[in-house]
Structure formats: structure tokens, C-alpha cells
Amino acid sequence: MNEDIQNRRSIEEPRLQLNGPVPDFTAKTTHGEIKLSAWEQDKWIILFSHPADFTPVCTTEFMAFAKLRKELEQRQVALLGNSIDSIYSHIAWVRNIKQNFDVEIYFPIIADLDMKVAKLYGMIHEPSSDTAAVRSVFFIDPERKLRAMIHYPLNVGRNFDEILRVVDALQTADQHGVACPADWRPGDPVIVPPPTTTAEAENVVMEGKDDVTDWYFARRSL
After folding, report:
1. What is the CATH number of domain 3-159?
2. Where in the chain is the domain with CATH 3.30.1020.10?
3. What pLDDT is recorded for position 40?
4. CA-CA distances (angstroms) from residue 116 to 2, 133, 149, 168, 169?
5. What is the rounded CA–CA span in Å between residue 29 and residue 88?
6. For a surface tag, which of 82, 94, 138, 174 has the fewest beta carbons within 10 Å of its beta carbon?
7. What contacts 147, CB < 8 A, 6 or more positions away?
8. Is 180 a catalytic residue?
9. Residues near 21 by beta carbon (within 8 Å), at least 6 away in sequence
10. Which residue numbers in the chain have pLDDT < 70?
């Protein structure tokens, strides 16, 4: 790809930024037409892409998402799938999963034949494929801000424990005004935001309200 094409593409395609607003869209899905900004307005959304219907790794992922239904509903999270396939392909695949594996795919799937959503969200990575989306996951909060995103290659399925952990960490951080350390799980201590003035740093050390290792490193149990 020459430099002119790369520059033009960088101008045309939106730049997704963490904590910034996500691009809105209207799309046909297996549950009817959906406008992202008006859909499940009080919930978090996990928008995810898969390379193609009727493929084995994608089938395992859809079943894994479906089996998280209760966990996600408890966290007020709605799922929205997307791939560059037709409505008819999606419907047939969902029915096939139910028939072969007895797993109900309860969430809508976007029929993105024109690649509109895939291009809006940067799901097409041409070194991997220019006709299929990679395994992208976008964590969108109720204000329709992008809070996290993960991309997996075509030949490696997602880690669904990590997807749920990211939701828990984001919601915990929002609710309590804290941060979550490496490998954090619900119930583990959280990180107290570090002080931003010398006076605050001194108070952290002197007050000893939290588990303080040093002025910039303090943990707290919720």
C-alpha cells in the first residue's frame, strides 16, 4: 500500500480513543434495526466482531458469550455481535448452533455486508484479511463512551474470563473512584489513586487509613 493511500485512509477512518465517544450507527440485525445511541440506553454494551458465520472458532465464542448471559445481565451489559455476513447467514447459523449444541444465541448480530460498522470501529485489519473482521471487543458504557478494547487474531479465540474481568474492573473503578491492579479480581484490594500534591502525599503516609507501601502506592479493600 503506498503512502498516499495510507494517508487518505487515516483521514477517512475515525480514530477510536479510550474514554471518547464511540461512532453512532444504524444497522440491520437479527433482532431488527438498531441505532446504537438509542439501543439499551441504560446499559453497558459489548460490541464484538467475528470473522465469519459457520466457522468453528467463532462457534465456540458465540456459545461462550451465550453461557455468560446471567453474569452479563447482572452487570447490566448487553451484547451486540457483528460480521460481514448476511441476515440469512446469521439466522441459519444461530439455528444451527441451537440444533447442534443446544445453545440459544440470545443477542442480536449485525449484518454488515457493506462493512460500515466494521470500518467505523476499525475491525478490518488488512494484513489479516480485507474481507473478514478480526476478533474485536469494544466495551462501551451507558454514556456511549469507549472504555476498553481488545483485538484478537483470526486464529485465536477470546478469553472470556478476561472479558468479564474487564467489565468488573471498569464498573468497580467507576463506582468507588479507584483503580484496579494487575490480575485484579472482584474481592481483591484495589489501588487508591495517587496524590497529586506534596501535601496530599504527606497525608497518605501520616494518616495510614489504607494499606500504604509508599506515598504513591496504597491499597484498599472494598
Report:
1. 3.40.30.10
2. 177-222
3. 95
4. 23, 12, 19, 30, 30
5. 10
6. 174
7. 18, 19, 139, 140, 141, 170
8. no
9. 144, 145, 146
10. 1-14, 208-209
Side chain identity at residue 170, one-letter code: L
- Which one of the listed residues 58, 66, 178, 190 is annotated catalytic? 58
The residue type of 56 is P
Give the dihedral sign, CA 30/69/36/162: negative
Architecture label for domain 177-222:
2-Layer Sandwich (3.30)
Residue 187 falls in which region: left (phi positive, over 0), alpha (psi -120 to 50) or beta: left
Residues 86 and 113: their CA atoms lie apart, in Å, by 6
